[in-house]
Specification:
By secondary structure, this protein is of the alpha/beta class. The protein has one domain: Aldolase class I (TIM Barrel). An eight-stranded parallel beta barrel has the order 1-2-3-4-5-6-7-8, surrounded by seven helices. Helix 1 packs parallel to helix 3, helix 6 runs parallel beside helix 8 and helix 8 runs parallel beside helix 9. The chain is globular, with a radius of gyration of 20 Å. Bound molecules: erythose-4-phosphate. The site of erythose-4-phosphate has 11 residues, from helix 7.
Length: 219
């Protein structure tokens, strides 16, 4: 399973990239707005900081302008994946960009039918938002199961399932059990995945006992 980090915070991305846990980055207009910086500069910097795909989202809603924005974003770096919303104009834009060999991440997916259409439009990634479905009392992880089942039926679908709107380690584990290709995860969730109170307690006890021996491995 690949991990993408869901942030536009360059310092955080650089720190996480060094750990080797990060296979790519996703941004969206809200995450870019948080930086208070020029979007094109931020995307360029993120693309230089990681080797994997970096999703950068168009902000127009009509096909013609989306396509122009898509080409502009794609020329920033080889590892840009253009993100388009799951609308009719977005899927037409996806098809045109995919025809030019540009990777497209179709975002704001909330139903299996939408995911099917995105695969038919040649999306490299489909982003179903599990947390936002859970928020309205629906089962976000059931959507992931449904999409994986549909995509598995057809060899011609090369679209990777990128689980988005992840709120905690439980979402990541459930997505991994289902065999989702990728989870895009806020930095705090990546840190939380590493932690367990029994690890901290066990380590403290080992160190206390070691201290009593008066020994040192080094020096
Ligand atoms: C995905 O690409 C989106 O940027 C993101 O996962 C949205 O998550 P949110 O619902 O926490 O805003």
């Amino acid at each position: 399973m690949k991990f993408f980090v869901d942030t536009a915070d360059i310092a955080e991305i650089t720190r996480l990239a060094e750990t080797g846990f990060v296979d790519g980055v996703t941004t969206n207009p809200s995450l870019i707005a948080k930086t208070g910086r020029d979007m094109l500069e931020v995307v360029r910097e993120i693309c230089a900081a990681v080797e994997g795909p970096v999703s950068a989202e168009v902000t127009a809603t009509d096909h013609e302008t989306m396509l122009k924005e898509g080409f502009r974003l794609a020329e920033l770096a080889d590892n840009v994946a253009v993100k388009v919303p799951l609308t009719a104009d977005g899927l037409l834009t996806c098809r045109r960009l995919a025809e030019q060999g540009i990777a497209v991440n179709v975002t704001l997916c909330f139903s299996p039918g939408q995911a099917l259409m995105a695969a038919k439009a040649g999306a490299a990634f489909i982003s179903p938002f599990v947390g936002r479905l859970d928020d309205i009392g629906q089962d976000g992880m059931q959507l992931i199961a449904d999409i994986l089942q549909i995509y598995d039926q057809y060899d011609e679908f090369a679209t990777e399932v990128l689980v988005a709107s992840v709120r905690g380690p439980a979402h990541v584990i459930a997505a991994a059990k289902l065999g989702a290709d990728i989870a895009t995860v806020p930095p705090a969730v990546i840190h939380a995945l590493l932690q367990h109170p029994l690890t901290d307690k066990g380590l403290a006890a080992f160190l206390a006992d070691w201290e009593k021996t008066g020994q040192k491995i080094l020096g």
